[in-house]
Amino acid sequence: MSQTIHLSEAQKGDLVTIESIHNESLSVQLLCMGCMVGEEVLVEQIAPLGDPMMISIDGALLSLRKDDAKQIIVSFQK
Fold first, then answer.
1. How does pLDDT run across 16-43, given as a tens digit for each residue?
2. What is the C-alpha to C-alpha distance for residues 26 and 28, in angstroms, rounded to an integer?
3. Confidence at residue 49, expressed as pLDDT on a 0 to 100 scale
4. What is the distance between the alpha carbons of residues 18 and 71, in angstroms, rounded to a whole number?
5. d(Cα 56, Cα 27) in Å, to the nearest integer?
């Protein structure tokens, strides 16, 4: 069974799948970087104060602000 959370709630080492992006402008920016609904994302690092976080998508590393990560809904298998 899968559970959905905001990407900002994921922990270092979590492998999640993007379910939806609730901000159209952010969605376009991420799409330009190869990040779209259905992609698997690995949370690589989280800054000591929780912002920003580094994610890996198909081997590419991206840094996301916590506010942006709150707009991305992801799922992972329990």
1. 999 999 988 888 988 888 788 989 999 9
2. 5
3. 86
4. 11
5. 17
In our burial notation (b when 16+ CB lie closer than 10 A, e otherwise), range 51-75 reads ebbebebeeeebebebebbebbbbe
Structure-token pair, residue 53: 């976080």
Which long-range contacts does 50-53 make (Cβ < 8 Å, 24+ apart)? 50/8, 53/7, 53/8, 53/10
Contact 30, 64 (CB under 8 A): no
Residue 19, pLDDT score: 93
Cα first-last separation, the chain: 6
* Nearest CA-CA partner of 6 in 59, 76, 62, 63: 76
Q: Region 62-68: what's the mean pLDDT?
A: 92
Are 7 and 74 spatial neighbours (Cβ–Cβ below 8 Å)?
Answer: yes
Mean pLDDT rounded to a whole number for the chain:
89
